Amino acid sequence: MQGAPVGSRSWPVLRPCTLDPRPKRKPRARGGAAQGLLERAAAAPATRGCPLFWRVYVAHELAAGRPDAARRVFLRGVHACAWAKARPHPGALARRDA
């Protein structure tokens, strides 16, 4: 390049590619790696009967802002651990309007 100061460089203009070779993925309904991990753990016999696991799962759903999903998970946990008589998670059955 003539006339350019030493050490300076002219960069080519980058334009966005209009053809994306990657296939489009459908968005996940409840997405996230943590959600998939929790669902797999809920299906596993080793963790299905663990009350602590269900408490963590309910807390995750509440932290994600899904009280309806937290209620469903809570009821699944009650069904899976009917023998456990501990108090339920404090926010497990939180009212929608609260």
What attributes characterize this protein structure?
4 helices, mainly alpha, 98 residues
Description:
With 98 residues, this protein is an all-alpha fold. The protein has a domain at 33-80. The chain has four helices and no strands. It has helices at 33-43, 45-48, 51-63, 67-80. α3 packs antiparallel against α4. The longest helix is centred in the last third of the chain and has 14 residues, at 67-80. The protein is elongated. 11% of the residues are buried. The model has no long low-confidence stretch (mean pLDDT 75).
Gap between N and C termini: 68 Å
Please outline the major beta sheet: none
Number of helices: 4
Shape: elongated
Proportion in helices: 40-55%
Compute the average pLDDT: 75
Radius of gyration: 25 Å
Strand share of the residues?
Answer: under 5%
Structural class: mainly alpha
Counted beta strands: 0
What are the segments in which pLDDT stays under 50 over at least 5 consecutive residues?
none
- Describe the oligomeric state of these chains in a short phrase: single chain
What string gives the helices and strands in order?
A: HHHH
Describe the SSE topology.
Layout (H helix, E strand, L loop, with lengths): L32 H11 L1 H4 L2 H13 L3 H14 L18
In short:
By secondary structure, the chain is mainly alpha-helical. The protein contains four helices and no strands.
